[in-house]
């Protein structure tokens, strides 16, 4: 705050009076991050008397509990309680959409790691010792461990979802190129660096406070209230910040928060449930593995004519968010391409594995990989450049998606043109070809990956948000909104929006811990929607306050209430400026408001207009708008080991008028690299009993620093002059779309691998494209060993 | 009563009567120093990274970024430890903190304290002369948010900055006493500081496990929650970590030499070993893990063994009664079983000089290039005599059998024959007689078999004809250190 006398009127325009909107800014917690001061749930000083809870997971993938005995565990030193399903006080089932997950297994167990008991003790060591003597017997039953087995068993978790257009069979029959096949995409662990953590602190009477690492504090509140049998008003859930979420804490923070709250109520002591890495990876769900079966037809120029696609998503043992994830996969089977005739159908199958859940892209990546595989095969068969075949199929404005939404302001061709010009695509192509011509064992590939991604929760009711803004008499501001901060920079953006609307500096605005007693009935911070929804709500609250302050500012500036200059007063940089150049500080205006007994707090609310989707009909307008982007990826593949290196990435992404460009760039780069991991090195593996083999970073490999190009080799540009109508300050959502840009790496790998084959020969590359998968694909094209042996003759 | 004393961010700290298997990370967090995070408790994510002054490092005291989750508290007895909370001095952030903020190097912030501490080490290093060394410095810090580009930018800015500040001044301070012993509640832990004390402890506790660095043994505590009843630390015996050149050009490497020190010492001097160490593990692990630890746990995927097999190293085993030497190919008896007798330690590794004109190289292939366990590792030494005939060949492999092995059939098939494509192809057929690899989550048997053969092919291609225009990169991408234009 300014140190000068705030009541003193100034007559000069402050030289620094600018809005922080659309300008680079550091993360609002950056200094707290780098100094270790930033606190996460497990870092909070333990409240007096705090105990810790250790959830005990089922050791078998499918079976029945035949006996449980807590006596020996309870007798262990330092153990305070052992809970089974019979001890649950109220509702016994939870879940984000349908309550089909027992908080603790009742009789059946359906996955390894499904919570069966909770041990509460003074320390984790005490709980672990008790876990060793806890007696639970099981009768094992046959488990369903693969999508294929689930299809055979007709084990489904939701109603099929279908979209159709045109006479697909006729179009397929008439196609000059017909491609049939299967695509499988694998699971992906979120690997947020902070594992699941919740601290429940019992209050007076029925009150319960829960501090949770959750993307969805309202859902935690609702489920805790249901599990305790109390009204939601008794439960306050707050989220200081998360050490990463990526969807993994949208629905799956709640089970552990609920367990903590149940124990806290029973023992009337604070209880923390924190999972170590192995528990976290074993007990929580992953990105859904998908199986797609397709039959596609194209003309001789590579134009899509028709596609019949069946999607099977592996939901794991409970529904969780599987149905909307399947829906989003189906909404993105088209990606950026016009498909005249189509028949898409999808189901979620049930397996005896962890319950798969939201993960950045929410099914979108799994859908897009299908159409990209079809186009890659077609380009290989037809000998077409992979970028060209994609551009040839781009949607244009006015065309309709498979679910009937009319596309407006399609930016695909524009992005394609700008990106290919910027990188000098034909020169890059020629350089790759020249390299490959002289290189026997190392080949390069180049691919351009376009992305179109629908923005809005596809369950339309979720597209609402609230905010509560408080202005203090010194001119400082607290912003509360319904979104949670998981690193994505939402708070930094909200700070910019509030500072802009009120005309104060960033430093004058503090974004508060997200809490359900500040903004009620919030949606998850998910679907890339955090800034769009909460930003509009924050803006509305600030507008209300600003307009309340306007007459007061006018008074201080000596303007008559009806003077035309009043409407032209500008709130900027901690001042209110009159057209004449006269100015008064924001603080002086606020003080005047307080003195005149004018309210200095306001709420804001936003609901996305004009969206609705009819799932039964497969038609509607589920999305407010679409985000677009493209990446050019260049890889180098080694024929003897299957290893590859990502040499260069050039991204051009459409974030509209970026609220904070530095934050958006971080989302684009981070999303891309997460997609790179899913498609190349991250391989979730189970044994034949359904036990997770990859439950720590020693066995599950996310990208490391050396896997990513640096400096000029990882270039990200934001599309210029790209303001989006009807979205907060012309911006666009950015959290998820860039993840899918990394599909270009797979296309580039295929192109490099294809060079070892005959013209027209297709590449068979499994995902993730690990060195082994790549080597198999190369061996499928030719045998380097045989070639070398032949050359040696 | 046992008390562990050390300096934490320059202030004395005492830990009284804690189990000796308490990790430094858990100790810090329990005392409210929560800036240091647990991300995995297996040394693979780096969120727990702290810096320790290695007062006895070759070339003088230096900071070492280490995984706090794998350091058992008695191992910091007498040491200086720095955590992320200790970097801000007099209200001013450290240059590495400022660089991270400016580069947008943090998003969720959870990996950030560990990244900052890795950069802290980088800031005071004087040997970060290539971009690839920044990858190495950072590969032990997983970040799920940023995609690393901004972190690399911050690293490039501060690497080797070496500000003349209080931290650098602290390097010159005399180290504290390392000796430590505790024996309570069924847990014995001792850090002898003389060999006589070591033999005495070993005589009294013949079942004790040795620890030095703890990058493997600590996992028993952090992942399997074992108590480790008897532990003898070798960290109080700096004489065991000396690395020296022999008069004949060979090497003598003390068993407790850090992998990071061996990597630095062999750069440009013993490339097959140096290249393997580059992709061996994270900087944090190499800053703690020892040569002897890697050999003595006799894992089939210990990456030093294939190289030392190819280099025909000898191991010096020592006990209270004296020393003996064992050729490395007689050291690995079976899965995780060695020729070490009870009461014996590995004292040093003797590496003979490579013959003049010898061709030698090493390879490692894993799912991820950095900080991953080998699917297959291999190393080769070939000498060519009169008429282009192979006079000497040694091929060491890891990841293909229950122990690291020499590929004797392969060697026999090429020895005495010309070093040509057809000669190598014929010899590769003999590899099937050498080992039958298994399927696991790091690779299928097919992949391992194919790699075993292809790495031999790659070695031939790399060494046979000098630089080749069609082979710009070494056959294993793992050793392509620089980006090729």
Protein architecture, described:
- The complex is a heterodimer of chains A (793) and B (485).
- Chain A contains 21 helices and 31 strands.
- In chain A, helix 12 (412-423) packs across helix 13, helix 14 (490-502) packs parallel to helix 15 (530-556) and helix 15 crosses helix 17.
- Chain B contains 16 helices and 20 strands.
- Chain B is globular and about 70 Å long.
- The termini of chain B are far apart.
- The interface between A and B is large, with 97 and 101 residues.
SSE order and pairing:
The complex is a heterodimer of chains A (793) and B (485).
Chain A: H1 30-35, E1 51-57, E2 63-69, H2 71-74, E3 79-83, E4 93-94, E5 101-102, E6 108-109, E7 115-121, H3 124-133, E8 135-140, H4 147-152, E9 161-165, H5 168-173, E10 177-185, E11 197-202, E12 208-212, H6 217-228, E13 235-239, H7 254-267, E14 271-274, H8 277-283, E15 290-298, E16 304-314, H9 322-331, E17 341-349, H10 364-382, H11 386-392, H12 412-423, H13 425-438, E18 442-455, E19 464-471, E20 477-481, H14 490-502, E21 509-511, E22 514-515, H15 530-556, H16 564-567, E23 570-572, E24 575-577, E25 583-585, H17 586-595, E26 601-607, E27 612-614, E28 619-621, E29 625-638, E30 644-653, H18 661-679, E31 714-718, H19 743-754, H20 771-781, H21 784-792
Parallel strand pairs in A: 1-14, 12-13, 16-17, 20-21, 30-31
Antiparallel strand pairs in A: 1-7, 2-6, 2-8, 3-7, 4-5, 9-17, 10-15, 11-12, 11-14, 13-22, 15-16, 18-29, 19-20, 19-26, 23-24, 24-25, 27-28, 29-30
Helix pairs in contact in A: 6-7, 9-10, 10-19, 12-13, 14-15, 15-17
Chain B: E1 3-8, E2 11-16, H1 24-30, E3 49-54, E4 62-67, E5 80-82, H2 95-102, H3 112-124, H4 131-138, H5 149-158, H6 166-171, E6 180-184, E7 187-191, H7 195-204, E8 209-211, H8 218-222, E9 230-233, E10 243-245, E11 251-254, H9 259-266, H10 271-278, H11 283-286, H12 291-296, H13 304-310, E12 314-319, E13 322-327, E14 332-334, E15 337-338, E16 344-351, E17 359-365, E18 376-384, E19 390-398, E20 405-406, H14 408-414, H15 421-428, H16 445-464
Parallel strand pairs in B: 1-5, 7-9, 8-9
Antiparallel strand pairs in B: 1-2, 3-4, 3-5, 6-7, 10-11, 11-16, 12-13, 12-16, 14-15, 17-18, 18-19, 19-20
